[in-house]
Amino acid sequence: MRLKVDGKEMEAREGALLLELVQVPTLCHHPHTETRGLCRLCLVEVDGRLSPACATEAREGMEVWSDTPGLRALRKTLLEWLLLTTDLSLAPELQALALALEAEPGRWGEVPGRKGREAIEDNPFFLRDYAKCVNCRRCVDACGDGIMGVYALTLTGRGLLAHPTTPLDRPLPETPCVFCGNCVQVCPTGALRPLTEV
Amino acid sequence: MEKPGLLPLLDARLPLTEEGVAEAARLAGVSLAQAWGVVRYYPRYGEVREGRYLVDDPVARARGIGSLLEGTVGTHPPLGLEALAPAYVRVEGEERWVEVGGRAEPFATFRLPFALGHGRKLLPPEPTDTLEAYRAQGGLRALEAARKGDLTPEALLKAVEEAGLLGRGGAAFPTHLKLRAVARGEAPRYLVANGDESEPGNFKDRFLLEHHPFLVLEGALLAGFAVGASRVYLYIREEFQAAIRGLKEAIGALEEAGLLLVPTEVFQSGGLYICGEETALLESMEGRRAEPRLKPPFPVEKGLWGRPTAVQNVETLAAIPRILEGLEAWRREEPKLFSISGDVAAPGLYELPLGTPLGEALRRAGGEPEGLKAVLLGGAAGVFTRDFAFPLRYRERLPLGAGAVVAFGEGVDLWAVLEGLAHFFQEESCGKCFPCPLGTTVQLALVQRRVRDARLVEDLASTLKGSLCGLGQSAYWAYRSLLEVEGAA
Predict the structure, then answer these.
(1) Phi, psi dihedral angles at B88 (to 5 degrees)
(2) What residue stretches are annotated with the 4Fe-4S ferredoxin-type domain (chain A) (predicted)?
């Protein structure tokens, strides 16, 4: 199957994700979870429409652009907004990306965010520090449909206030949690982290 | 497959206790985690404070929200009361009231005044809220013909195609394409009437549902018949309690008359703007947080419970019986409903031919375009404009949305109106994808500081455009258009 990526003809196998064919940043996508299409950092232009590369399969004759001025503005701006609203101090990859995109968060002025959230220490194994959470949902998916099928995590709130929580907002030991650590493994920002390594 | 919906099970257990949530989860066959995520998403499952709330719509913002807020405990999202603004909602125990002009009426019985409607086809000049009244005005003929086999699904689809009917909810997608795609799918198939009208400035669906339930139902049943639906759902904004009761009575009357061609039921919406987005709507019906799905697949392929589903706006459905009555007459007029409010002498709902110039629409409602500062066209997902010659038609330079027209006189502070819209988007963003909750929060901060930096607004636009659904994708339109209007002034 042939398609055109950034002006160049390309060969791809049937059913390949565009993410395998283009160099774009990702954040919510993780091979072991079902989360996809949320962070929008991997958006590309497909036949004139914005599509997440992590959730779009290559098709014969497709025309894909991965680095237009609009997409560059989007990635840079998104990083700026994440830096403004969220504590990314334990997310070195995102910091490096912000540097590469020449992010200048200050240009937006003061914006209310989620940095003020207090960390929850309700079990001996790991910390839930939602000031660092970008709400990518990998942990919720890993706990539920994606890996474990335990369903000890869910989401609370809407908009920028939305973040993971437990059923009935109970401390983790009072939920079905088996402390398998999968949620900690898949967290990209250090919002979930082992207590022993802090 | 189909299980009892979580939302109705939770509704039946209000006010919620932990035991009630657990029981609803068990009966719905979902995890407690899923049920808790739902409880923590929809406002009516949270704590509702008693007291008086200002209905925070663009007209209230234009009048100056500061003084209107006196004696209130906060604001309530728009309720389709723009023609009566300022309006208040009072919450006392389990009871909610609409307060307009010093008079209060419970949600259970409050309807928009019938006198607000001005039209002929989509808005019959006489009430049609009983089967007899509707029949006396020529209604039910298409439904009778379908029952007798004189009207086939294909003939119906063909008529809708020839009428050139475009979806009246705002997206203007050709109705026949959607219906045909579902009709081609494998059974069971569903038809959902989207009556979740929450767009600021719009009150056409509310009016239709409250005063012409049989017209809407006939349209929904005809569409359901055309796609071979095994069930028709009327997804109605939860706050429209009088409409919900009227629809249930109308369903009963049609059943008694042997005209309920497809089993039909009312589903109370989740009570959020995002519930009008068709995939979020389906998520709420399936008992989850009303968050938009990634598309494709589209609902016409995988909709409710994974089955082919046509989600159609209320006004779109109401148009179908009228099209079948007379295709030529329909095409000549192409009637569309416009909710006109703000600084006009006679705010209300006006049925006008598509293509009517904006200025003429305003004059019909007793407005004087010359004396206006601007008009908000389409709603929150709309634009400010001074182009009064603009023909009110789909696929033109400006978005028509669902047909909201809010007029602002010379004295109005348009930035105060814009702040209301920005606040609305920030409150209603579901938070699933990244650009929307971040961008709507940033936008509100910029608007509050009255930032006119075109470069920043362009980057805001480029980024919001990347949102998962139409809510985020359109959230910057009003902001950018206000800068344009100011530049041109």
Answers:
(1) -130, 155
(2) 124-153, 164-197
Tell me the DSSP string of A118-152. Answer: PPB--SSSEEE-GGG-----HHHHIIIIITT----
Q: Which chain B residues are closer than 8 Å to A55 by Cβ?
A: 294
Name the H helices within B326-382. 327-333, 358-364
Q: Give the count of beta carbons closer than 10 Å to the beta carbon of residue B485.
A: 18
Distance between CA atoms of residues B248 and B277, nearest Å: 24
Nearest to A40 among B428, B456, B466 (CB): B466
The complex's ipTM works out to 0.97
pLDDT at B3: 66
Residues from chain B contacting residue A59 (CB–CB below 8 Å): none
Phi/psi region, residue B482 (left: phi>0; alpha: psi -120 to 50; beta: rest), is: alpha
Give the residue extent of every domain in chain A: 126-194
Query: Does any CB of chain A come closer than 8 Å to the CB of residue B454?
Result: no
Question: pLDDT digits over B317-370, tens only?
Answer: 999 999 999 999 999 999 999 999 999 999 999 999 999 999 999 999 999 999
Burial class (CB in 10 A: 0-12, 13-18, 19+), A116: exposed
B12 vs B33: CA distance, rounded Å: 19
Report DSSP letters for B376-406, one per residue: EESSSSSEEE--TT-B--TTSSS--TT-EEE
Interchain CB contact of A100 with B (< 8 Å): no
Q: How far apart are the C-alpha atoms of B119 and B334, rounded to whole Å?
A: 12
pLDDT tens sequence across B79-99: 999 999 999 999 998 899 999
- Average of per-residue pLDDT across B231-257: 98
Residue of B17, B23, B36 to mutate, testing the A interface (most A Cβ within 10 Å of its Cβ): B36
d(C-alpha A158, C-alpha B270), whole Å: 13
Give dist(CA B72, CA B45) in Å, integer.
Answer: 22
Give the minimum alpha-carbon distance from B469 to chain A in angstroms, rounded to a whole number.
Answer: 11
Tell me, yes or no, if B439 comes closer than 8 A to chain A by beta carbon: yes
pLDDT at B364: 98
**Order of strands across the sheet with B190-195?**
B264-268, B231-236, B190-195, B309-313
Provide φ and ψ at B119, rounded to 5°. -175, -170
Residue B14 is given by DSSP the state P
- Quote the CA–CA distance of B33 and B440 in Å, as a whole number: 28
CB contacts of A154 in chain B (<8 Å) are 33-34, 36-37, 40
From chain B, the residues in CB contact with A19 under 8 A are none
| Mean predicted confidence (pLDDT) in B127-138 | 95
Q: Do B437 and A109 touch (CB under 8 A)?
A: no
User: From B425, which residue of chain A is nearest by alpha-carbon distance?
Assistant: A159
Mean pLDDT of B446-470: 97
Q: Which CATH number describes the domain made up of A126-194? A: 3.30.70.20
Residues B37, B309: Cα–Cα separation, whole Å = 25
- How far apart are alpha carbons B145 and B148 in whole angstroms? 5
* Under 8 Å between Cβ of B472 and B440: yes
Name the nearest CA neighbour of B431 among B421, B441, B422.
B441
The two tokens of residue B456 are 């920043």
**Interchain contact A68–B (C-beta under 8 A):** no
